[in-house]
Amino acid sequence: MTGTHTPGEILFEQYLQSQAITFEFEKQHLDKTKRPDYTKQWENQTVILDVKDFDPPERGLTGFGYFDPYTRIREKIEQGRDKFKQYKEFCCGLILHNLGNPFVSLHEPDIMLGAMYGDSGFTFPIDLRRGVGDTKQLKRAFLNRIRPNRSEPQNTTISALITLVKICPHYLQLLDLVRENPGKEIAEHEANIRNKIPNYDPQFEVPRVIVWHNAVARIAFPKSLFRGPYDTHFDIVRVGDGELEQDVTWEGAAVPDRLRLLQALQWQGCIRFDMRLKIRST
Fold this sequence. Notes:
Elements: H1 7-18, E1 24-25, E2 38-42, E3 45-54, H2 71-84, E4 91-98, H3 109-117, E5 120-123, E6 126-127, E7 132-133, E8 139-142, E9 158-167, H4 169-180, H5 186-196, E10 206-213, E11 232-238, E12 243-251, H6 257-266, E13 271-274
Parallel strand pairs: 3-4, 4-9, 10-11
Antiparallel strand pairs: 1-2, 2-3, 5-8, 6-7, 9-10, 11-12, 12-13
Helix pairs in contact: 4-5
């Protein structure tokens, strides 16, 4: 590594090395003026990857206020769109890494998928003559606030967004034990976990990725790439004529229960949407 690497690139290379995945850094492609961060040959196709970091906010932020959870993520998506313009014939993945900005959430399905397809929300039919809505037919939906004047999909080049984070799996397993048996002392929980994990270290960190597949991508992201023991894929499942679901389709065996529970609370059921309605995606 050189001093030109960003924190996200350093962490991503640690992840690649932990999975024994080889790569080419800033490869010069024929007839291209922009160099992507990483190029990977995988299952007879070329995968182009670019890493974007979210810088922490400036010091001194205090008080209360409102913020849009999509804005900063969509800004990075726009930067990725610009970087990938010359690579439309390749599978392109945009890797997002947060350096501590509390206004950026890269693990919540509603926010990540909403950043791609349009603000996450709900719809239900309304009787306009009576002004009464039928909330029994309440459905999740993407409300398409990205580019409201466009009816066609806005991005087919980015095959997937990829969240890159670090987790402390041993510590998370300790928290699972505390949650399951709150009456016991921490020392007792630690003794129990040391029996299960001889090399227990609450400071032990590993890189993890979450792959958010893009339903309207021109080229699908490989389902078999980035399937480490701590990784998760939110992929697309066709359930009917033009009707799709997006949900967890693969998860590593070592993902701590705490992360699974948090994910389940954030994602009560999959989002179902109709491709015939032409999802607007950024």
